[in-house]
Amino acid sequence: MQSTERIDALNAEAESLQSKQPARALELAEEARQLALETGDKSQLVESLLNIGAACWRLERKEQGKAVALDALALLEAMDDPRRKANAWRFLGIFCRELNQPEEAMRACQESLRWAEKTGDETLTAKALNGLAIMRRRFGDYATAFDLFLKALTLHQKARDLHNEAQTRNNIGLIYENLQDYPSAVKEYQASLEVFEALNLKKEVAVTLMNLGNAFDAIGRADEAISCYEKALLKHEEIGSMQGIAGTMHNLADAYRRKGEREKAIALFKEALSIAERISDKRLIVEVCMNMGRLCANRKSD
């Protein structure tokens, strides 16, 4: 097989494995990138970088993901390729968001939407709308975020794209939580969860179970919240998401704290803190320490 055909085959297989086998997808995309560097084919190199970025998102390799998105954008500057420019900017937005770089993330999401709209591809536009809506929500602009999510939802429904429709409904659930409309949030999360489970998308299932647990917790349905957190923890452990494991343990511990089950809460807080320190998640470290402090303060007052 010629090098160009081999690169195309590697990239095609990597793309097909992104959701279910991201580690293998990353290996294939890395191999494709190396071959593309050897042949000097910049178009195939961009495709390889985008596949690496997709795998990095699922594997929580944020710094690497941002770096390959920037590499792809540098190559795309000289190309008339709005579709891949939209995707590269979208990936950059995702990684900047997860690296707590909100201004960079917002700009990237705006650029992604600008290029997506040039393609006339409604599915690509819907994904870009989702990314921008997530950032609007992060900045507290819930009304704009809600409108953007609804536009994305309409496009995904039109395309019968169940995966991204469910992802959008999950995001709409977060808006309802921000507005303290928890029954509506629960409804959106449950609808999303049903789709993700049917598609066997483990990361999405884990994240949605966490969101559902948070909504149940907010309305005092502690046992249902704990059940969701426990299921989410199993999924995060299954896919090896250390950030997901630590975050879920923290939420589960806090639910037990509010129920008065201190020993369970303390053990989970300590485990969550240990993992958060290991992966250098500063935000989570602060949250765990604050809630452990509350638990200790309550013990002293008793």
Topology, element by element:
Elements: H1 3-17, H2 22-39, H3 42-59, H4 62-76, H5 82-98, H6 102-119, H7 122-138, H8 142-158, H9 162-178, H10 182-198, H11 202-218, H12 222-239, H13 242-259, H14 262-278, H15 282-301
Helix pairs in contact: 1-2, 1-3, 2-3, 3-4, 3-5, 4-5, 5-6, 5-7, 6-7, 7-8, 7-9, 8-9, 9-10, 9-11, 10-11, 11-12, 11-13, 12-13, 13-14, 13-15, 14-15
Average predicted local confidence, pLDDT = 95
Give the number of helices. Answer: 15
Q: Proportion of β residues?
A: under 5%
CATH class of the domain at 1-8 and 28-119: Mainly Alpha
Largest sheet: none
Poorly predicted spans: none
Radius of gyration computed on alpha carbons: 20 Å
What is the number of E strands? 0
User: Roughly what percent helix?
Assistant: over 70%
CATH superfamily descriptor of the domain at 1-8 and 28-119: Tetratricopeptide repeat domain
Shape field:
globular
Using the coordinates shown, work out and report the CATH topology of the domain at 1-8 and 28-119. Answer: Serine Threonine Protein Phosphatase 5, Tetratricopeptide repeat
SSE sequence, one letter per element: HHHHHHHHHHHHHHH
- N-C termini distance: 74 Å
In the CATH hierarchy, the architecture of the domain at 1-8 and 28-119 is Alpha Horseshoe
Would you tell me the structural class of the helices and strands? mainly alpha
